[in-house]
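2024-03-11 09:14:02 INFO receiving multi-entity request
2024-03-11 09:14:02 INFO entity count = three
2024-03-11 09:14:03 INFO echoing inputs for audit
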Amino acid sequence: MASQGAHDTEETVEGEVTISTSPVRFPGAWLSGENGAKKWVFYLPVIFMILFFVVPLGLTYVWSVFERTAFWMKPGFTMFSYINFFTSARLDNFLYSMFHSAIAVAIAFVLGFPIAVFVRRRITEVAQHRVILLFILPFMVSEIIRIFALRPLLQRNGLVNSVLINLRLIDEPITVILYTPTGVVIGEVLSFLPFIVFAGFLAMEAVPKYIFEICQDLGAGFWRTFFDVILPLAAPGIFAGSVFIFVNGLGVALLPNILGGPGAVNAGLIATQAISALDYPLAMAVSAIMMSTLLLLLYIGHRLFDLTRILSPIS
Amino acid sequence: MSNPRVPAVKVAGLAKSYGAVEALKGIDLEVAAGEYFVLLGPSGGGKTTLLRLIGGFIRPTRGELFLHGRDVSALPPDRRPTSMVFQSYALFPHMSVAQNVGYGLRIKKLPKEEIRDKVDAMLDMVGLASLGARQPHELSGGQQQRVQLARSLVLERDILLLDEPLAALDAKLRKDMCIELKHLQEKIGITFVHVTHNQEEAMTVADRIAVIADGELIEAGTAKQIYENPERRFTADFIGENNIFESTVTAVSGTTVHVELGAREISVPRREIDVKKGARVWLSIRSELLDVRPDDEEPSVGWEMLDGTYLEKVYLGLVSSHMVSLKDGRVVNIRKVSGGDMEFKPGRPVCVGWRRDDARLYLL
Amino acid sequence: MLDEYGNIIFHRLKWTYLLLIVAALMSPVFYVIYISFNEFGFGAGRYAFTLEWYGTIFSDNLLMGALRWTLLLAVITTLITVPMGLLAAKFYKNTRYKVATVAILLSPLFVPSDILGSALLVYFKNLNKAMESLSDMLGNEWFYGWFELGFMTAIIGLIIYTLPYIFIIILITMARYRDQQTEAARACGASGWRAFWDVEFPQIRPGVGAACAFAVILTFNEYTRTNLLKGGFDTFTTVLISQLLNEGMSEQSYAMSSMVSFVAIAVIGAIIFYTFIRAERLEREARAKAAPLMAE
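2024-03-11 09:21:47 INFO inference complete, emitting structure
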């Protein structure tokens, strides 16, 4: 259990469980610094993140209310970009893309989470690592390439259609799987399935192995075990994984760009298009909206599930 | 060579807090040079914190720390005249035994031959003469601790700190290594500061023992002192097996205090305690100084006797433990060497008694 | 480990499902690789094995230049991010504010690439302008061009992208390391840095190696952020994507995609292979250890 700033070490020694007397590792432990002055170097990563991640994202809110100029923006305060966004056709498309993202999350969950449960429950520790590697493989191939690579697969004259036609399962090629919202959803699911599996792995760390035996002992069927026991325990990890997929579905411009039909957009595409059109405030407004959605989701999740639990396996 | 009259370790008002948690509440302590000093106490009581403060692994919140007269509070572990033996998992797994032992010498940049000679000599001294080429995981627990000893002692520092070094070993091995540690320290002559929660271990090796609990120094003294004449109730409770009862003072007269126990008034020597009638006190008697007698026997001179009912006997090998319940319901534990002629049936009325001088009082 | 009541058929079924999913995930890539070797490209009814498309890559100077840039980006990002990850892991272990630290270090995972890229782009442009004004005020050119969109801004974007992954990998690796070892080294006279290098690093080396491999692959594959932040030069991936976007999938682009994927497949394949070998060796060692130890 990761509690703020402390962890006890338990040593299992020769069959006895001895509570180690090495006390909690709090700041001040001189594990790597000659004296106080040298400690600043450890703050570098956090400082870097704050400088180049937190600040820029925070500033999107500021920039989103700037005025647009021909090539750049002018500091000011105007809700023009937001109004522009909310009243244009873009809004509908944006909402659609949220809907599709949500569907993708659901499908990915149904497809991928059982894998995590199966691996955690039935496979030895050693083999578990190999399975993780197996799922890292698609993740390591460039996500862009994976998205693009869906075209030759799902096109009119692509592999899927050729195979189906050759097997005489269909007469006409299926066109609904590419350049349509369906195509986007397929692309999302395939791109992010490894993540839900990883998130599932992490989430299942919260479920101790003996739970399954206990449930069997008590005579609980599979579904009861799942809903009453696994889901609540694994909820933080599942939620985090779902938010991840959802937000990325909204934010990766290439998904609708490559796989969607004409006019298909998501927030990410709107933002990059806006930048190409030199409408920076609009791009920032879209980014700000995305960030707010993300923060809102994470906040809700934290209140519901206490997301810090996800980290207990690693702390 | 340091002045033998300057204490090896001197701690003044040393305290350590983690946020709101006070691990150590302000300790004053002195360890003489060349002494085998033990910090004894329950888990989480602060003894390891104190040891790590001495070693430099944590920084004090306030207070001062002097090693051989030098203020070391600003120094990290590698610059203090201390070396440390840990409980377990402290050998470097990617180095052989000889490389482990020689590590500190390599840091000091000694020539290779000198390192080899010193390592060999030290391995010999701890009884691991031919095992230099082994890897740590190939050794048993006891052997690993010896390697740690060798690694620390080869540095020829003035103070050796040991953090529950024998806790990971089984009982028989622990006993043997205790004695070896004692002999080792006597042979080498440097100061040892040894942390443990095991009484027998403490009493085997220590010249002096400090009882530390709840972040405080309860008491310090030789094994004999704290066993036979504990000055604090906690010590009496923690060391040996003492019967400790809460009681009220009924009268004070000169060198005697009268308290109530077993529905009767008994007298206890006052010693240095300062109480008035009505004060609440603790009464403590060592279980081996009590005796159980048939209730129709004559009380001995100078003894306090109480009536009671014999409850049961627990056979523990060398000693047997007898339980007797007093008239006020409290249970007394009497320990006697097994095989005596004390056979009573449970339920039989008996007398429990002790020499008046063997009881002690503590303030509540 | 199958419990006694487990059904072996179900077990096999579940394994098959798992492998099917992986296959489904990888099939687009494998198909692309398949096509890349086809002389007739995609959609033609015929197939003839050829390396000619790969040949066009290596003879194209623009592409080779882009490839060099990509490799440079990958190496430099790794060289910066992995040490940062180590620092961050140590910081996390010793700080009291664990939740905040982790939140900051892991949030980039949750921010989609386009959003992060856009925000950083605007940020850098503003920063650059600000620094230029500062220079003007001081009457010189010291602060000019620091954050102009170019190599450095691309690196910064890549570091933000990869650091969370590296941080997690290193944390997991360090979880197996016992801090007593560092303390013991310090007690032997080693300085903080020495203790890390002599004692801790050798034990976390495999994890650090994995982190480096991960960082290289991630950088190689990254597109969106790099594209937005790179300014003038081209990377292999950006050339590839712009080709794909503009001209559709040419035969050469199949070959290029395959090349990029090969790297990942080769690395992961090597790791899987290596862990198999290591698993064998560890098992042999464990069996040897289980044999009776030397008597005291």
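2024-03-11 09:21:48 INFO post-check: The mean pLDDT of chain C is 81.
2024-03-11 09:21:48 INFO post-check: DSSP finds eleven helices and no strands in chain C.
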